[in-house]
Amino acid sequence: MAIKKVIGVCKLCGRRRRLCRSHYLGKALFKLTRENGKHPIILTPKIIAPSPRQMSAHLLCEECEHRFKVREDTALALMNGKNGFPLLERMKLALTIEQGDKVVTFSGAAMGVDTDALAYFALSLLWRGSVHVWNTLKGQTTSVSLGKYEERIRRYLLGETGLPEGVYVMVAVCVDVGAQGTTFPPHLLEGSKYQTYSTLVRGLWFHIVVDDEAPSAETSRLCCAKGAQKLIFLKNCSEEFLHAGRHLRSTAEVDPRLR
Question: For the segment 104-117, what is each residue's pLDDT rounded down to a tens digit?
Answer without folding.
Answer: 999 999 999 999 99
